[in-house]
Design brief:
The protein has 209 residues and is an alpha+beta fold. The chain has two domains: 1-113, Beta Polymerase, domain 2 (2-Layer Sandwich); 115-209. It is built from eight helices and five strands; from the N terminus they run αβαβαβββααααα. It has helices at 11-19, 31-39, 58-67, 115-127, 132-143, 149-160, 166-173, 193-205; strands at 27-30, 47-51, 72-77, 80-84, 90-94. It has a five-stranded mixed β-sheet. The longest helix has 13 residues, at 115-127. The chain starts with 10 loop residues before the first helix and ends with a helix. The mean pLDDT is 94. InterPro entries: AbiEii.
């Protein structure tokens, strides 16, 4: 089991993370919180559980058992459930057909998506016009030599096949005109947006089709 940067979670979120142990057989934690727990680069505020199987009605029974009364359902569609816990923490259960390429990272609570798989979910998010935090996460994945940009593309194509829009992803990775919210709660020193943008632009220039 790897060291976790639990300090990225406040008390309420740490309680939720520990409660997610009850979903160990359901899925793994992905998203920015999963990455932040592994590399400690920023605070994160919600939880995204990527499930092993399509969502079933029994999941609601499990949610009620673990969180009790007071949670609020905000979205319930075929492959995604969004809810807010009684303490006001956003929690999503999400299923897609794409299998993990790497084994999840074991923890005493909910296992974490491997950062290399996680990089592919960030790539998909950016291809769909993700939020600034998605760019920040890609920046830290590259800066910390966890993956290269070439590997992000390779892993994304392996996970999604022909569905991954490589050219669009690279275009969106260096398009920032519609980003309006740059607020990030960094754990260590603040990284200015221009530094992140310039780094991503330079990395993208290295890619040849």
């Amino acid at each position: 089991m790897s060291k976790l940067f639990l300090e990225i979670l406040d008390e309420k979120r740490l309680t939720v993370f520990k409660a997610l142990r009850g979903f160990r057989d359901t899925g793994v934690l992905g998203g920015g919180t999963s990455l932040a727990l592994q590399i400690g680069h920023r605070r994160s505020y919600d939880f995204d559980v990527f499930t092993f199987e399509s969502l079933k009605p029994l999941l609601w029974k499990q949610i009620r058992k673990i969180f009790g009364a007071g949670w609020v359902r905000t979205l319930d569609i075929q492959d995604q459930i969004n809810l807010v816990t009684p303490t006001g923490i956003s929690l999503t259960f999400f299923y897609d057909d794409y299998k993990f390429l790497f084994k999840p990272i074991k923890t005493d609570h909910l296992d974490l998506m491997d950062p290399r798989d996680l990089s592919t979910t960030k790539a998909v998010a950016i291809g769909r016009r993700g939020k600034w935090r998605d760019y920040v996460d890609i920046y830290f994945l590259l800066k910390n030599n966890i993956v290269t940009l070439e590997q992000i593309i390779e892993f994304s194509e392996k996970r999604t096949g022909s569905e991954f829009p490589t050219r669009l992803f690279l275009q969106q990775l260096v398009y920032f005109d519609d980003i309006t919210d740059y607020k990030i709660d960094f754990i260590d020193k603040e990284i200015l947006p221009e530094e992140i943008k310039n780094f991503l632009i330079q990395e993208t220039k290295k890619i040849r089709f």
